[in-house]
UniProtKB/TrEMBL annotation:
The lineage of its organism: Bacteria, Bacillati, Actinomycetota, Actinomycetes, Micromonosporales. Its cofactor is Zn(2+). Pfam families: Pro_CA. Catalyzes the reversible hydration of carbon dioxide to form bicarbonate. One of its GO terms (molecular function) is zinc ion binding. This is Carbonic anhydrase.
Length: 193
């Protein structure tokens, strides 16, 4: 599948989801039908938020997308390696980064920067990784969390170029990287341009 077709399929799947007429149920017969092998058409990097189940909101079935989730879709070596595996071994033509409105990880980062009270340990790592997006907007902006969420998606999209081989594949037109935002209320996914 070409990158543009993969993106069109994800967006079409989101429209099916929003319309209330998804094609794919998640039943065991669909699992069995895909058990012989996989040819996924995208790897989606999203947040752990329980309200953003990626297979559901893109109406995708077993075998059709690889999914990587972390708090605020923060990237570490495991995420980069997983994207790299999806691209190199599974030949996915599309890498999508999906943020969402009212992201708790972004809100926590805004809060930490406002109060100077950075969470300890590995949660602090998430905050550190999201902080540049918040700082790029500025804490004085009344809409800082919403704008920082979008800026953080853009930064995460950029990080995908750190995956070995991806810049060359993008240049060759065999892989595309897209950033998008999910609306918790409407169920719609909007591409960031
Ligand atoms: Zn989130």
């Amino acid at each position: 599948m070409r990158p543009a077709d993969a993106l069109a399929e994800l967006l079409a799947g989101n429209r099916r989801f929003v319309s209330g007429r998804p094609e794919h149920g998640h039943d065991v017969s669909a699992a069995a039908a895909a058990s012989g092998g996989q040819l996924p058409h995208a790897v989606v990097v999203g947040c752990i938020d329980s309200r953003v189940p990626l297979e559901a909101i893109f109406d995708q079935t077993f075998g059709s997308i690889c999914v990587i989730r972390s708090g605020g879709h923060v990237v570490d070596r495991a995420v980069l390696g997983s994207v790299g595996f999806a691209v190199a071994a599974l030949k996915v033509p599309l890498i999508m980064v999906l943020g969402h409105v009212r992201c708790g990880a972004v809100d926590a980062t805004v809060q930490a920067l406002r109060t100077g009270d950075r969470p300890d340990g590995d949660v602090g790592y998430l905050v550190d990784e999201i902080a540049p997006a918040v700082e790029s907007i500025g804490l004085d902006d009344p809409d800082v969390a919403a704008k920082a969420m979008r800026a953080h998606v853009t930064r995460t999209v950029r990080r995908m170029r750190d995956v070995a081989g991806v810049p060359d594949s993008v240049a060759a037109g065999t892989v595309a990287i897209a950033g998008a935002v999910y609306d918790l209320d409407t169920g719609l996914v909007d591409l960031l341009t």
